[in-house]
């Protein structure tokens, strides 16, 4: 599914779509699921950081001195929604190694599907930072909304949300709760089922990354 909402970015690059398809296969091993997620994270990080701040620096080439461009990576904070968000961290950090990293521990109550917080730790100096919140799945939206609400209270410069997969229900909920937050995803699937799982989806991301099924 595509969208005309300028705050929702579906990354349609063929490499992203190919790797996502491999991850959806129910017989993908834990090793290959994790490897593909890592590769996808790098590709998505490239898209998400397209407008990140840069600075001019002096550099001496073997021939002369010039003014050149570098990113201001230290002003970026990644916020991983545990557990599954950690599956995206390595790939993001490969692309922006200077980023600081926060963790937001949330699990979905299986009965109510509400997000329950068990941990929260973010870097210092948040008002000086742009934040990218990462979680492979945006389903009901409860986890992302709760995480972003907590991050927003620290007044960062900006917040983006990156997931691998979402559905119309999750996009709508997050857009309504946090209309200022841009959403980046590789796909918007058809719908949620009665247990809050994305259809067709890829199953339980946390269990597939960590082999805990
Ligand atoms: O949009 P929602 O309906 O809130 O669902 C999405 C959340 O569900 C999964 O986490 P889960 O609670 O299974 O925890 P885990 O990452 O520790 O497996 C997933 O990683 C998201 O955080
Ligand atoms: O489909 C889903 C929904 C929530 N969390 C997952 O890991 N998968
Ligand atoms: Mg899970």
Automatic annotation (TrEMBL):
Positions bound to uracil = 198, 203-205
GO molecular function, a single term? uracil phosphoribosyltransferase activity
Q: According to the UniProt entry, how is activity regulated?
A: Allosterically activated by GTP.
The GO cellular component terms are: cytoplasm
The residues covered by the Phosphoribosyltransferase domain are 10-212
Q: What Gene3D superfamilies does its record include?
A: 3.40.50.2020
The record's keywords, sorted A to Z, are: Allosteric enzyme, Glycosyltransferase, GTP-binding, Magnesium, Nucleotide-binding, Transferase
Which top EC class is given?
A: transferase
Question: Which SUPFAM superfamilies does this UniProt record tie to the protein?
Answer: PRTase-like
Q: What is its EC number?
A: 2.4.2.9
| Nucleotide-binding is among the record's keywords | yes
State where 5-phospho-alpha-D-ribose 1-diphosphate binds: 83, 108, 135-143, 204
Q: In which pathway does it act?
A: Pyrimidine metabolism; UMP biosynthesis via salvage pathway; UMP from uracil: step 1/1
Question: What is the required cofactor set for this protein?
Answer: Mg(2+)
Recite the UniProt cofactor note for this protein: Binds 1 Mg(2+) ion per subunit. The magnesium is bound as Mg-PRPP.
Q: PANTHER family annotated for this entry?
A: ADENINE PHOSPHORIBOSYLTRANSFERASE, URACIL PHOSPHORIBOSYLTRANSFERASE, CHLOROPLASTIC
Q: Which family does it belong to?
A: Belongs to the UPRTase family.
Please identify the protein, giving its name as recorded: Uracil phosphoribosyltransferase
Origin organism of this chain?
Answer: Rhodoferax fermentans
Lineage of the organism? Bacteria, Pseudomonadati, Pseudomonadota, Betaproteobacteria, Burkholderiales
Q: Which gene encodes it?
A: upp
């Amino acid at each position: 599914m595509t969208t005309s909402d300028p705050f929702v970015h579906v990354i349609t690059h063929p490499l992203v779509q190919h790797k996502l398809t491999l991850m959806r296969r129910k017989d993908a091993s834990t090793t290959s699921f994790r490897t593909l997620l890592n590769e996808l994270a790098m590709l998505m990080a490239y898209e998400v950081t397209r407008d990140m701040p840069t600075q001019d620096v002096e550099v001496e080439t073997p021939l002369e001195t010039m003014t050149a461009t570098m990113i201001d990576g230290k002003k970026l904070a990644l916020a991983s929604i545990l557990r599954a968000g950690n599956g995206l961290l390595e790939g993001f950090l490969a692309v922006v190694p200077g980023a600081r990293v926060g963790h937001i521990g949330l699990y979905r109550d299986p009965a109510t599907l509400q997000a329950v917080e068990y941990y929260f730790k973010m870097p210092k100096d948040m008002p000086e930072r742009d934040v990218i919140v990462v979680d492979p799945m945006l389903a009901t939206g409860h986890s992302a909304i709760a995480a972003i609400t907590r991050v927003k209270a620290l007044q960062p410069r900006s917040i983006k949300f990156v997931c691998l997969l979402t559905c119309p229900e999750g996009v709508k909920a997050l857009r309504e709760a946090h209309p200022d937050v841009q959403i980046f995803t590789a796909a918007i699937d058809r719908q949620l089922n009665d247990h809050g799982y994305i259809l067709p989806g890829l199953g339980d991301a946390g269990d597939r990354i960590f082999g805990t099924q």
